[in-house]
Amino acid sequence: MNDRLAALRDGMAKAGVDGFLVPRSDEHLGEYVPPAGERLRWISGFTGSAGTALVLADRAVLWTDGRYTTQARQQLDPAAWELRHLVDDPPAAWMARHASGLRIGHDPWLHPAPALAKLAEAGVTLVPLHPSPLDAAWTDRPAPPAAPLRAHGVEFAGEAAADKRARLAKELDADAALLADAHSVAWLLNLRGADLAHTPMALAFAILHADATVQLFLHAPERAAAVAAHLGNGVAVAGREALLPALRALAGRRVRVDLDATPAALVEALRDGGAEVVAGEDPVRLPRACKNPAEQQGARDAQRRDAVALARFLHWLAREAPGDGLSEVAAARRLLAFRREVPGFAGESFPAIAGAGGNGAIVHYRATAASDRRIRPDECFLIDSGGQYPEGTTDVTRTVWTGPGPAPAALRARYTAVLRGHVALATARFPEGVAGPHLDAIARRPLWEMGLDYDHGTGHGIGAFLSVHEGPVSISRAAKPVPLRAGMILSDEPGFYLPGHYGIRIENLLLVREAARQPDQARPFLEFETLTLAPYSRALLDPALLAPAERAWVDAYHARVRAEIGPLLDAPARAWLEAEAAPL
């Protein structure tokens, strides 16, 4: 990696800048990027999905959040890189102390304007560079993806694309809206693809006009011929190179732009062309998050089918793990094999996190040939995984005890505290207007009472046959206070991690729905419907630490798992499930 840093620094010197910013995101500012967008990984070796780096002439710094700090320490060369916490010591604060007065280069296609403005407050001079010195140094950079496109049927989407375009166009407070988030483009047009490894969509930009027509821009536009009939006459397709001219052609028009979700280069192109930029949220983002009845039912169906694969895997694991002959990679592959037998399975929603012992304490650990270790008897094993189905996207985590001996009492107490927080959130009832940050503490309270905590959010949004991480809502102290609405699907995943020893995380998906009115209720309330169907670990759970209501909830949940999943299993797996999910 040091030769790559040297090549970048040489490019920085030629460009007349003292430093260069390297974000994790690509031109769509998303969490997940194709190989051609893995700039942060290329320069640093860090493979996490959240991070930012600053390369100066004599030092290099990488910021990431609590999910990835342990992983980053393992992947970064300490002789070349410094690690900072993205929340505790954010880039702007660090740059104010160490880079004030310097000229810092950045690629304006990879940063939103508000983030750049925040960094400018640190006293640095930001210099846009495109093409960037990093891309120039990356001589073997892969080509942009251009996978085939396919229509997402209305039986899954619940609404025809033409109807979506007409409905959202009527709600625009402008002549057009620029969509830089490829998830929004995929949802609006009922279009799916395979430009990303685990998110079934094409990486595309779009302009939605007030007359409901759309201009679609993507690499290799000829691939849209396969879906031309689906797109219809209201959608014009062009290559990515046509995007900037199209933006400049909007002179005198009012164009709605989500500044936080749009590269600064596109905003500048609009302004340079004479358009009036109207700041406003991506008009697709909230409708996409609030699943319609077809998407909600699809989520239930996908969870049920996925639960069969997970139950088969957990039964298999219960047989194999105590023997010390199983590795993390082998376990992840076996789970994938079970999912591949499920009708409609379209791929993993992310690479499975299969962490045994201390590896489970790495929140987003991924077992590789280099890190793979045996799953030993009498330790924790954490498996976080998900699948993509045309009906919906799944994400589920279970932590198990490998046996054959009993789990230590202290470990069972911590697992039960995590479960209590998980149940507390699942059973929460709250008034309309409550946002994710308001609910986060509910899931943490049992751990807080023990003086414990976890350094990640409690829940994230889930797409409908789209990304496993979807905005605009999340359950986290650091999240924007976006109110929850009926139809949203979020994860419920508190945890506890003891570095070097084990990790505990329990995750279900929850659907927000309207709650039944109470006699004296003055305003509408919301609640959650639990979608995921998988047993909790009987070996790790201590029923004596549960309150009566918590115990009743777990028993009712397990009864539902037995009733809905048991009949879909063969006799040995069904017998295992009956025992694992028996009343406490």
What does this structure look like?
The chain is of the alpha+beta class and 584 residues long. It is built from 19 helices and 30 strands. The strands form nine sheets. A six-stranded mixed β-sheet has the order 4-3-2-1-5-6, sandwiched between helices. A six-stranded mixed β-sheet has the order 12-11-10-8-13-14, sandwiched between helices. The chain has a four-stranded antiparallel β-sheet with strand order 23-30-29-26. Helix 14 crosses helix 15, helix 14 crosses helix 19 and helix 16 packs antiparallel against helix 17. The longest helix is centred in the middle third of the chain and has 28 residues. It is globular, with a radius of gyration of 24 Å. The protein starts with a helix and ends with a helix.
Short key terms for the protein model shown above:
584 residues; alpha+beta; six-stranded mixed beta sheet; 33% helix
Q: Quaternary status of these chains?
A: single chain
- In helices, the fraction of residues equals 25-40%
Note poorly predicted spans. Answer: none
Helix/sheet category: alpha+beta
The spatial strand order of the largest sheet comes to: 4-3-2-1-5-6
Distance between the first and last residues' Cα: 53 Å
Percent of sequence in beta strands: 15-25%
Major beta-sheet overview: 6 strands, mixed
**Arithmetic mean pLDDT:** 97
Computed CA radius of gyration, to the nearest angstrom? 24 Å
The number of helices is 19
Number of separate strands = 30
What is the 3D form? globular
